[in-house]
Amino acid sequence: MTSTQWVRRVVKPAAFVAALVPAVLLVRDTFTGNLGANPVEALTHRTGFWGLTLLTVSLAVTPLRRLTGVGALVHLRRMLGLFAFTYAALHFTVYALDRSIWSGEGWAMGAIVEDVVERPYITVGFAVFLILSSLAVTSTNGWVRRLGGRRWQALHRLVYVAALGGVLHFLWLVKADILRPAIFGAIVVGLLAVRLPRRKRRSGPRPEATPG
Amino acid sequence: MLIRRPPAIRTSEITDEGVYLDRRQFMGVGAGLAAAVAFPGWRWQDDDELTPYDDVTTYNNFYEFGTGKGDPVRNAHTLRTRPWTVRVEGEAHKPAEFDIDDLWSRFPPQERVYRLRCVEAWSMVIPWLGFPLRDLLAAVEPTSAARFVEFTTLYDPEQMPGQRRRVLPWPYYEGLRLDEAMHPLTLMAVGVYGRALPNQNGAPIRLVVPWKYGFKSIKSIVRIRLTREQPQATWNVSAPHEYGFYANVNPEVDHPRWSQKRERRLGELFKRPTLPFNGYGDEVASLYSGMDLRRLY
Questions:
Q1: Is residue A128 within 8 Å of residue A162, measured between CB atoms?
Q2: What are B240-247's contacts with CB under 8 Å, separation 24+?
């Protein structure tokens, strides 16, 4: 089996199942009443955690490709990104329900607008959700063609902004214990940093223009 | 405020408790329960439904045992609650050190059902066992200079593993104005649901100030000090723009990062409005007449 076949037949299905496990456990815990004393908070935290985790894992694909030389790993990237978006969408949905219907004030959409405008961690979280949504929509081959490779790539570099924004969102919402957001921050910054040397080398010092 | 019969305590629960309590502690609980039954005293109760015991004892903010809500119930077994003494000192004519078992017998616990409103916008209804702080303070005879009361939690990273990380400035300390401390609603709790406090709920003795956000109700107290100056309070020192010294429950003053207008009563999906002073305004609002509670949040 070539490494490409191995990625397609083994690694990708395994990653798919692994990324689905948190969702399966969430559904199980929801329907068996195992979300603890504050189920809405548990759902919010768990969906947010897995959204950021999968976003981080998707950023690890490219460094892993370079490290292993297995270029076919790129086939994991879109799937992991879409999982990250799915968890983020669940996270946003639970939050939005909590601030509207479940608020006990009827359909109070005003509270969400107020949050987005007035509370920086929610502003950032909402911006991340918008970015991930647009990346999810344009993730198809059709959109790559429509935008052209170069423009599509430029758009999808926003994933770095989304990851850093996700870390900031997490950091700003904790009360005192910044350990977990700090760990995410270190990993995301690390994954971005390993991309830098290569880019520098490519753009390198340009030869002086010499009069011909 | 409605008066209601205290919830029945199943004999099986009490018997079960005895299995893991040492003899001395078990006798203390027994004496306290007997006293609670014999001298029911005042009962401050509400028509709110009690939050189930399992929720009260598994969903806790007690950073000395970890910052997750489920950490305290997992980690608090390392806390040794016997022997335990509480020193009451400072501006007092008769400062004293009280053994926890003596407190049980000297100040017979009453049952008080209070709402607990966390600053994180969730709430519970809890049947505490305890005695008014004013009785304890009266026993040490505060001097005329005493204006505030400072409380300190145990500091022992061996017993409280969460103190090994400086998430907050340890030990946890809190403070009340003397008139707040002397208010009949202010309770020193030694039990919950008719039994001794589980470790994760602040055993063996904690403060309960039902009209203030939960973080004011300091747990596992080893020292109470009467002071002239306003004492420092942990969360107020840690993040002064988010947590004030007074920390009265107030739907009109939002936490900078979330609204305080409504709260989720644990066990309910739809939130309910948060009441000024957590619904105890009739009893305590007069303590703050003339104060700008927007500024002194």
A1: yes
A2: B243/B119, B243/B213, B243/B215, B244/B296, B244/B297, B245/B175, B245/B296, B246/B212, B246/B288, B246/B293, B246/B296, B246/B297, B247/B119, B247/B212, B247/B213, B247/B215, B247/B216, B247/B297
**CA–CA dist B11, B33 (Å, integer):** 12
Bridge pairing between strands B221-227 and B85-90: parallel
| pLDDT > 90: percent of chain A | 73
**A205 contacts: CB under 8 Å, gap ≥ 6:** none
Residues B162-172, mean pLDDT to the nearest whole number: 96
- pLDDT value of position A109: 78
Alpha helices in B141-203 (DSSP H): 178-181
Contact yes or no for B205/B32 (Cβ under 8 A): no
> Tens digit of pLDDT for each residue in B256-275?
999 999 999 999 999 999 99
Q: Minimal CA–CA distance to A181: which of A132, A136, A124? A: A124
Largest CA distance in chain B: 52
Cβ–Cβ gap B67/A176 under 8 Å: yes
Closest CA to A93 of A131, A142, A53, A126: A126
Torsion over CA: B249, B252, B256, B262 (sign): positive
Taking contacts as CB-CB distances below 8 angstroms, the residues of chain B near A38 are: 59, 69, 122, 264, 266
Using an 8 Å CB-CB cutoff, list chain A residues near B270.
102-104
Q: Is the dihedral of CA B161, B165, B167, B168 positive or negative?
A: positive
Length of chain A, in residues: 212
Q: CA of A94: which chain B residue's CA is closest?
A: B269
- How many beta carbons lie within 10 A of that of residue A75, not counting itself? 15
* Contact call for residues B66 and B165 (beta carbons, < 8 A): no
Spatial CA neighbour of B4 closest among B110, B112, B107, B129: B112
Q: Residue B254 and residue A113: Cα distance in Å, rounded? A: 16
What's the whole-number mean pLDDT along residues A96-119? Answer: 86
Q: Dihedral, CA atoms, A12, A16, A19, A21, nearest 10 degrees?
A: -130
**Rounded Cα–Cα distance for residues A45 and A51 (Å):** 10
**CB A1 within 8 Å of CB A9:** yes
B74 shares contact with chain A (CB less than 8 Å): no
C-alpha span between A36 and B272 (Å, rounded): 20
CA atoms within 13 A on the CB side of A84: 28
Cis peptide bond prior to B40, omega within 30° of 0: no
Using CB atoms, which residue from A41, A102, A121 is nearest to B271?
Answer: A102
Q: Does the pLDDT of residue B10 top 50, yes or no?
A: no
Rounded to two decimals, what is the model's pTM? 0.85
